[in-house]
Design brief:
alpha/beta, 4-stranded mixed sheet, 4 helices, globular, Acyl-CoA synthetase family member 3, ANL_N_sf, AMP-dep_synth/lig_dom
């Protein structure tokens, strides 16, 4: 858990070889949007994009979006960037996880 959100720090954690590595990532759609904005500004070279996608596909096992509706363009672009289809989930503190999209590999 980070004290405050920083797209740069999240991408650095995703790509870090330090242990423990991130293997599950959960965020709201706005966080994914901010990460994609950072990606568009800083990962402009095809070899950097390919490296990032390969690391995410190999090292991260699950990425989840929750707490708000996930816009289809965010879902599709995130899949193109990382190779991961976001698992969309809904729930409440009182009842726990109420609805979930299917987890497919």
């Amino acid at each position: 858990m980070m004290p405050e959100f920083s797209p740069q720090q999240v991408w650095e954690k995703f790509l870090s070889s330090e242990t423990p590595r991130i293997n599950v990532f959960m965020a709201v759609p706005t966080i994914y949007t901010k990460l994609m904005e950072y990606y568009d500004r800083h990962f402009t070279q095809p070899h950097a994009q390919d490296f990032l996608r390969a690391v995410c596909e190999e090292k991260i096992r699950l990425m989840v979006s929750g707490s708000a509706a996930l816009p289809l363009p965010v879902l599709e672009k995130w899949k193109n960037i990382t190779g991961h289809t976001l698992l969309e989930r809904y729930g409440m503190t009182e009842i726990g996880m109420a609805l979930s999209g299917p987890l497919t590999t």
